[in-house]
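Here's what a typical entry looks like (Formate C-acetyltransferase/glycerol dehydratase family glycyl radical enzyme):
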Amino acid sequence: DPNYLVIGGELPDHQPGVNELSHLFVEAAHNLRLRNPFIVVRYYQGIEKEFWLKVCDAMRDNASIIVYNDMTMIPAFQAYGVEPDDAINYGLYGCNDPNIPAQEGGLRQLWFNLLRPLELALNGGKYPLNPQGERPKEGTQYSLNNRMIGLMTGPYYGIKTPDPGEMHSLEDLLDAYRQEVRFLLEDYRHAFEQDFKLELEHNAGRIRIEDCFLHGTIDQATTWNNGGTKYHKVTVQGSGMASVVDSLAAIEQLVFRDREMSLPELVEILRSNYEGQEFLQARLRKRMPKFGNDIAWVDDLANKVVTIFCDEVARVNAPEYVYTFFPTISTDRDFTTMGEDVGATPDGRSIGEQISENQSPTEGVDTEGLTALLNSLSNIPFHRITGGPLNLRVHPSAVKAQNGLEMFATALQTYFEKGGMQIQVNVVSKEQLLDAQRNPHKYKNLCVRVTGYSAYFVQMGKKAQDELINRTEKQ
């Protein structure tokens, strides 16, 4: 597990948190380039230029550094009930999971696959890979295994929404999408509350070691799980955001703008997994507008998808519940697993293919460079999201010499000033990574960012290496 060392940020008295020790930590991370611990730099408005350049210089040499933005993180925590004096002291645990240190208990999370409600909305609430099936008449469709590990492996069924032929605009589809998101989140809340009740009964009279180190548990003589701490959080990780956005963009372009086919016709093609429609599938993969290329109307769709998700997460919170659900945009390492039982989608994705990763665009479709990508991402309402990583792979030539460093630092700073939330960077070329696969003895110290942690590239499995290689390279 990653160990986080948090520096910088805004202090409770609203003074900057950077000091001489902050500089030393960044210098040490730069010189040693260890896999662990992770330096988390909290960006804040007015960050001193010398320190920021030092951080960016270390990142371009692949030091284990990630950056979070106080200007979005602090308001996001406050939006879900965290008091201002606590929100300003946020830290991290898990894999890119911001938290309120010593004020909340253990990590609880659900990876909410944002593609599932889309395929339900396109199929009247039916699971397209088994349309004859039904959800349980009693209880929850979230299996015990899913609830324990936090994934959504299928099948999942929704509520009856209008048939595709009754949808006359993308807004009609988005309305159905919202209904399916709401239904699935309400189902999970119900399941979580039942599990929580059983957990309390099972653990009655027991304490955990972490109870000794949290505020409130000793004073109130009760465990954090019983309400001893101020905050109780379940992280609901919205996964596959870009896959949903690209799918909606394809529908808007193909069906409602160009009118090349009807929505029912497209849905039938998806049900067949593009059989006999390989040319159309290739067009949908490569020729449709895609998120990450600074296309205003596509970026607006990203805002709408994330807004729906955050609205519906907030909706299932209520004063009578001990735990509050906090939304993030993240897949961690599970973007491959989460696609395995999802049907074909309008972005050109086949049955079982991986979904988009974390906050990144769909693999290989963001072709307009770093500035365009960051412009697209800045349209997401990050002030409502409490975590999640953005993985960037930048070609070394783009950050070469002092001029390259200053351009790199300015690009990241502009992104944060426009409302971006988080960044972690790999500065390495595709050629270098391929050579490292062939000649691992030459790259023993090549450390790369995976998601919430770093790894030595040559110690990673082939599948994980290939995923990193296939991330779009920014010039």
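The first strand starts at residue 4 and ends at 8.

More examples are in the samples folder.
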